[in-house]
Amino acid sequence: MVSLHWIDYSIMAVYVAFVLGIGWVLKRWMKTSTDFFLSGRAIPAWITGLAFISANLGAQEVIGMGASGAKYGIATSHFYWIGAIPAMVFVGIFMMPFYYGSRARSVPEYLKLRFDEKTRTFNAVSFAVMTVFSSGVSMYVLARLMGLLFHWNFHVCLLVSAGIVLVYIFLGGLTSAIYNEVLQFFLIVLGFLPLVLLGLKDLGGWQGLVTALNDVAREEGFAEGTWTSAWHPMSSPQNNPMGVEWFGLSMGLGFVLSFAYWCTDFLVVQRAMAANSMSAARRTPLIAAFPKMLFPFLVILPGMIAMVAAPRLPQLTAEQLAALPGGEEIVPPPERGLIPARYETKDGKLQKVYHQKPDGSGQLRPELDYNMAVPMMLINYFPTGLLGLGLTALMASFMSGMAGNVTAFNTVWTCDIYETYIAPNRSDNHYLWVGRLTTVFGVAVSVLAAYVAAKFNNIMDLLQLVFAFVNAPLLATFLLGMFWRRATGHGAFAGLVLGTLAAAAHQATTAPKGAWIAELYSYRSEMAQNFWTAIVSFSVCFVVSVAVSLATRQTKPDEQLRGLVYSLTPRVQDEPGLRWYQKPAVLAVIVLTATLALNFIFF
Amino acid sequence: MFLDIRIPIGLLFLTIGLLLAGYGLFSDPAIYNQSLGINVNFYWGGVLLAFGVVMLILARISRSG
To answer: A1-455 has which fold?
Structure first.
């Protein structure tokens, strides 16, 4: 166990003081519900842009991308280079004119304006449930990690971090969340950067990392370079640890999953809606794309380094480990590089979990606890002092993710559910206060969800699967809604429902995860299965929406669809006086060119 | 804009930078075995400090300009 000193705690305390201080200062500007839910549409693009990525920079990103970096290597950057970046460019150039131009306060509200009440409610309810659960899971991961590493009390850690987020959102609403996200963004970058620098220096630079990871690839039965090239191993599912091939990857991840998330998830879109002009709203995801494009070096590289770095601290020996009573929370010694094996308590003793080699040769290998990759890197390279900064950055990432979820939940609950069904036509002040109370309610439910996650690990797995069903078909609904005038409310609703069911059906009939009904096909990995679930669900939603739309009468006359559908909306003109670097189209070209270059460099 | 976010960001990194760099000056060199023998607290503290100052200068420029 590593112990923390006063300097580490001081850095954390300074951070917490600033975060709360920002909420306090912003309090006096929160006069109307528009201020609270939309920041009064008064925030410049560079701030909404950084908040756009920061809100997404939660537990999944920092811990999860590091874990995937260790498990799959540089191919994990497909989540950025063919996933997030093209989708962010698309939402900025093509979709933002409708989101921002329609003056909708939320993504579900856009669905109401474009289609009808039932489509909106379907989206609002599933989104609200999804956000509180993801912020709960995020909190659970943080509290457990801190308990494991530093023996912090799980309950105290959970309640204190939730309390901090609660206070600054309660006071300053979305503005406070966005401003803190910008601060958290810089903290995360400057907190994790030394990790990458030290790790690379230790291994002798990028070349050293490549050589060391070639050994890993050979041991696992893959070609050399599998961990360090992004496209080469994608020729067939047998050639890479992800178990996917280029088509499933490009369609499932690059198109359906990434576009569905970045173009329709209110958590990120809300940041752009708070921008101070149409061109600022369109620039938001484009500005976000610049740092996002480089994030693989910040979050994936540490995981790859963790696979091959040598421990620099004394470790528990096998004898000491064997002497420990089962069920105790400890950090086991490293199994591969810095990453420990996964242990389970069996017959009152801690025992390693084994799995089969991916080539099916029958050889049993210890399973690694990849989620420990980034935390182990922090403990390994950071002395006290810098360790305080690293942990503060880790906390900042959890808080920004959680705050993003809570603010999005606030708006959807208040504007799309409360105002529509429970108490319509009240005063603006009433809704402002409901928004504040919803913050308390949202955080409380998140805490509850964290406890549920702590108790039933498998239930959370299942829930995350259900969320995937909900997200994937949405993309088809939005594409049809924005670019096809004839799409009707009935069509959209039927497509969404059947698309979601199709995702469930696909999961229920294929392996490795699911196959509850029958096993018609077995994918090489869960990831490949996820990608194909998304493809199936998108296609079903698309076909059903088109068919039902053609069979039903147009829900709304053309006049009402002006500003909501591409063919009925005048093309957006950039405001006069924009410099070249403020033009969305110019930014888009630069981002796409640079991303293409990155794909080739790490081909 | 409600408040210039560069000011709190600048102040935050200024404070943390001073804390880290100051600690780096007086800390036991043995703890830097972990960070490949480099006094990372001192150097990275300096980087944070510089970043904080740049943020404050930027805020100052846009205020007067």
So the answer is: Sodium/glucose cotransporter (1.20.1730)
Structure confidence at residue A307 as a pLDDT band (50, 70, 90): very high
> pLDDT digits over B1-39, tens only?
567 889 999 999 999 999 999 999 998 888 898 888 899
Residue with the larger pLDDT of the pair A230 and A443: A443
For residue B1, the model assigns a pLDDT of 53
Task: Please report which helix (H) or strand (E) contains residue A334, including its range.
Answer: strand A334-336
The answer to whether A190 faces chain B, any CB pair under 8 Å, is yes
CB contact under 8 A, B20 and A43: no
| Whole-angstrom distance, CA of residue B54 vs CA of residue B10 | 7
**Given a cut of 90, is residue A198 above it in pLDDT?**
yes
Spell out the domain ranges in chain B. 6-64
Q: Are the beta carbons of B40 and A182 separated by less than 8 Å?
A: no
| Segments making up each domain of chain A, as ranges | 1-455, 457-572
Among the listed residues A12, A61, A27, the one whose alpha carbon sits nearest the alpha carbon of residue A402 = A61
User: ipTM of the predicted structure?
Assistant: 0.95
What's the CA gap between A540 and B39, in Å, rounded?
58
> Rounded to the nearest 5 degrees, what angle is found at the Cα of B63, between the Cα atoms of B57 and B65?
100
pLDDT at residue B50, rounded to an integer: 96
- With beta carbons less than 8 A apart as the criterion, state whether A115 and A490 touch: no
pLDDT in tens, A371-395: 889 999 999 999 999 999 999 999 8
Within 8 A by CB and 6+ apart from A524, the residues are: A237, A238, A243, A244, A358
Q: How far is the C-alpha of A483 from the C-alpha of A567, rounded, in Å?
A: 7
CB contact under 8 A, A11 and B16: yes
Indicate the residue of A44, A182, A386 with minimum beta-carbon distance to B40.
Answer: A386
